[in-house]
Amino acid sequence: MDLGVLWFGIIAFFFIGYFVLDGFDFGVGMSMPFVSKDDTDRRVVINTIGPVWDLNETWLIVAGASLFAAFPEWYATLFSGFYLPLLIILLALILRGVSFEYRHQRPELAWKRRFDRMIVWGSAVPAFLWGVAFANIVRGVSLDSGHDYTGTVFDLLNPYALLGGFATLLLFFTHGAYFLALKSEGSIRMRSRALATRAGVLTIVVAWVFLAWTVLEFGSLPSLLLAVAAALTLVAAFVANLRGREGLAFGLMASTIALAVLTLFTALFPDVMPASNDPANSLTIANASSSPYTLQVMSWTALIALPLILLYQGWTYWVFRKRVTRAHIDGGADPGVERTVEVAH
User: Fold this and answer.
1) In terms of DSSP bridges, do strands 283-284 and 271-273 run parallel, antiparallel, or are they unpaired?
2) Strand partners, 283
3) CB neighbour list of residue 84: distance below 8 Å, 6 or more residues apart
4) Where are the domains of the chain?
5) Which of 40, 90, 131, 338 could bridge across to 168 with cysteines, CB 3.0–4.6 Å?
């Protein structure tokens, strides 16, 4: 197999892992105001992702580093042309991470509420902007002959990209609600299931429209099949939630997000950054990739390191597989997200 194509697939795999795993993190953060009635509820919600949220974000670091090494031209064009949206994503992730660690440092309710708002917005902003960014990558942007972006930030806010942003926002929101239903007990579990039901209807509509638009304008037969599979698993997740099958609903939603991201990468192939103004200026796998020797060294490194990473992450989820309840919070000393994270590390 051509190593450029192989690494295009590996990078797609890393972004699938990031959107599936950090996606439910974002959803949990956005769901907090809707499923929490008091501070104990909010602490339960945060503790459901306490051991894993920072581990999930490492998928983004690995994806970005792999993109830089395997496709330096793609990396340079993407991070220069999309500088402002990606900077906003980075700042939102920083504020979100800081909030997880600092909300428990003082007992005042006003102090905690400020950081809770930062968690909500620090989850919603990346969830929306990632959809905008990837929709623009698939749609194509204005590039000159040197593969430099020649548009403005407002060109990125086109109808297709905004629809993509709302699609990822709703997919992650519903994904997080399924996860909360799976990881909590009592009233939070019931509220999460009800929230997932209400949000699920809108999510199905918006995601279906976005997938249909993607396939009709930019897709191929393989991307059509993947989009249909994503649409079906999304409905199946909704039905599973209605029947109280939280684990099945969460698994099907993870499959939906994975299939949707794979649909975008398949629609993009063999380009990595299409030029909407002139196809001759497009970045492709062939003209954006590193040298064969670089890709060969990276391939051997990935062959050794990737299975170890997957085993470690799987072990982490197994260790922290139990549900989080109010009794864990009320039954003694404040466990807080900080203690859970310490155990995880």
Assistant:
1) antiparallel
2) 273
3) 153
4) 3-269+335-344
5) 131
